[in-house]
Design goal:
The chain is an all-alpha fold and 186 residues long. The longest helix is centred in the middle third of the chain and has 37 residues, at 75-111. It has helices at residues 3-27, 30-37, 42-52, 59-70, 75-111, 114-125, 127-141, 147-155, 160-185. Helix 3 (42-52) packs antiparallel against helix 4 (59-70).
Length: 186
Amino acid sequence: MNKRKKHLLFDVALFFIGIAAAYAAAKYGAVAAFVALLDGYKLVAAFIAGLLFTSVLTTAIGIVIFVKLGATMPLLAVALVGGLGAMAIDYVMFWFTRDRIMADYEYMLANASGRIRALFTLCKQCLLRRLLPIIGAFIIMSPFPDELGVALMGFSNISIRKFLALTYVMNAAGILVVVLLGDSLF
């Protein structure tokens, strides 16, 4: 099995471990205990849930905490403060991966054969490159982990100011949808 396939399988396994952990945390009262522990500091709990909302391993736990918080505080406050936490982690991911993604791209371009090199050059200049931040933003808005969306935005050379604004808005919108759905389902 090649290295890329092992990495993908590892990420999928982490995602399902995170779902199992979130289920166990909700079923055995860990999420309720966390929310109760921060009862006077629910905005802090929303920020922490936002931090958890972005990663492969912790997305499901963040969602469960948001649903619990949504039952006890204004939904918009949960989304806005949670969006700040998610944006903070997305920025850290962006900061660490942006240069590495561009270095990988330049390496692939330098070592590519004629047709592949032409494809890389075309993508660098074409509409697809302009669409990458939009595609990345919708991935960030979804309840799925943000790593791919952050990588796409890093590849597009988006400015840090635009990245922060876009990830905040999309994370807050995604969290609001999750809380609204959780509120209507539970």
